[in-house]
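Now for a sample.
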Amino acid sequence: MVIARPDVNLFHEVAKLPSEVVAIILGYLPNCMLPELLYFSPIKKIVASTILSNVHITEIFEKHEGSDVPGVGYSECDCNMFRITLENLKKGIDKWNIYPKTIKTEFTDSFEIGWDVFSKLLTKASSIYGFFVGTSNYPPEELFELLMDSNVKFESLHLMYFLTPVKLPPVATSVTLHQIKLDTYVIPGVKQLILRTKSINQERTNFTFSPDLEDLRIEAGSKMYVNLPPNLQELYISSTKTVNFRSEEMLKLKHLELQLPTIQSFEETGIRAPNLEKLVLSTCEELDCFDNLKQFQHLKHLKVSNTVERIFRT
């Protein structure tokens, strides 16, 4: 939406609409513009609710400004959540008595400093997105202990650069791990797990996962032994090294994507997924035998890219 600044006449007309319609309109506006609408008395309560219902709690942020350049306005704003400090969020809640429905939070220091405030916010939110980067002065065990004690459940939890192996408690349904090693990858209740370990230099990595897992994505730079859980519906594996799979017949697997430059035939994977509907083979540079793909009788989408050229010669 291209808007340079709030139009007084426009929003006086908007204020005449039913409150639920006003809320819908505000939901389409750039987040950076919303605080300026608090000066429109007839709709300021709805504006405050829109601001506080979907927040990104952060200590560092830039506020986008509207531009007078024709066709630009607030179009450069890419905020899909309202960025706010914990202190200002607390002030907003105290003033309007409105708690966030969706929260994205980051920086472990905020949790340590304002945990009493955070715990109340998190227990009242319906969707919580956590983003935590490991720091030397804040052991991950303390963070996870706080989360367990508060019974907080994250819709999505993203962890980066914890220096020591950690034991992740069952506090999220979707987990992304970037350069982190867990004591165990069997995490009850996790439906989606994304692992990125490309720069970790290890001789061999063994992965075993919870049977609750439905969506698994791994990007690795080491040899892997992967025990695939039986209830997977989506699987993405990318590795520059050898990957050994162990699995039973995977009846629920519908979407499979592999980037494995060392395999010469699909049969090497040992993956049996009779109900597979989508298969993507990318950067499988040595792959030249496709006979085993005949097993996929329900396949609707097949994409092969960056493989050896000779497979297309007959």
